[in-house]
Amino acid sequence: MSEINIDCTDNLQLLTDYGQSCRASLIYTSSRYVGLITQHLHADACLLVASKGESITGILPFVIKGGTLGKVYNSMPFYGSNGGVLQRTPCAESKRALIQHFYTQAQSNNAASATIITNPLLEDNDDYERWSDYDFKDERIGQFTAFPDNVDEADLINLFESPRRRNIRKAIKSQVQVYATQKPEDMAFLYQTHKHNMDAIGGVAKHESFFQLVPELMNDQEWSMYIATIENKPVAGLLLLYYNATVEYFTPVIVEEYRNTQALALVIYEAMKQARVKGFKRWNWGGTWLTQDGVYSFKKKWGTQDLPYYYYTRLFNPETLKQQRQQLLSEYEGFFVLPFSQLEQS
């Protein structure tokens, strides 16, 4: 049996050459998205590459952020991202070596913590359960709508529960119009509405710089916006990311006074129809906390399948447990440091 070699590199081109052909890989491990996130978060990206002889047998991409407590390692950081090992052909020996090397490297570099976030489509959580030697484990529910093979519109809309079908019909009766776009003025509308929506509920909005980097660093086939208008006024919007067979539901927005028009429901429906025509197989609604009953229910009515995934965290600096939540959010913005429920002052 060939010996497994593990190399560390910052050559993100490997993600383009190798990662995209891996089963169920998501955009969070694509080279351009990783480049965008590292620039946005002022962080560094690396790849652990396993090989036997001349053949690559797996890649584990991750991003590192420095701070006063030490570095934080994530595979992968930022809102709703998934990471973990990418493999064209399953090789348990290489996968185990990559997972263990990730945590060993973090520890040897005086990291505060290191976290792998699994890919729900791979349904391989048991591998990380066995090989992570984790201190903390956090769970999310991944929700996906699998598109019917037939592109007939009736096949799609029949996936949805009756409230969603009613929402779509109401939006049409409200004279809502929807168009796809990559125009800067539509991106500005989407960001401004996103910030207003998040401020209204006390949430944390993505920075404007992220939205500015999307058209700059992603190629035109990897992203799009859909905007809804009423009498030529934009009232709702959605930023989508595309990779392999999956559409990522990334940032939805709605102008509050137009919420009852159900414009966002029509935006989602029109975006789904066009994604199917382009050959995409599934819609990823992103992760949902176990406590987010309302969010879970909203997504569930779009005909979703539940696929749980987990955050496997090893803690190397116990001083991290003594910190305030807000300090960690500020210093390691966009990164998962540890479950906040573990903080001594939580």
Care to give the gist of this entry?
With 346 residues, the chain is of the alpha+beta class. It has 11 helices and 12 strands. Strand 9 and strand 10 (246-254) form a beta hairpin.
Structural account:
There is one protein chain. By secondary structure, the chain is α+β, with helices and mostly antiparallel strands. It has two domains: 4-139 and 310-342, Aminopeptidase; 148-280, Aminopeptidase. It is built from eleven helices and twelve strands. It has helices spanning 13-17, 31-41, 92-108, 125-131, 153-157, 162-173, 184-200, 208-217, 263-277, 293-300, 325-331; strands at 4-9, 44-52, 55-65, 71-75, 111-117, 136-146, 177-181, 223-230, 233-243, 246-254, 282-288, 305-315. The protein has a twelve-stranded mixed beta sheet. α3 links the parallel β4 (71-75) and β5 (111-117). α2 packs antiparallel against α8 and α6 (162-173) packs across α9 (263-277). The protein is globular, with a radius of gyration of 21 Å. It starts with a strand and ends in a 15-residue tail after the last helix.
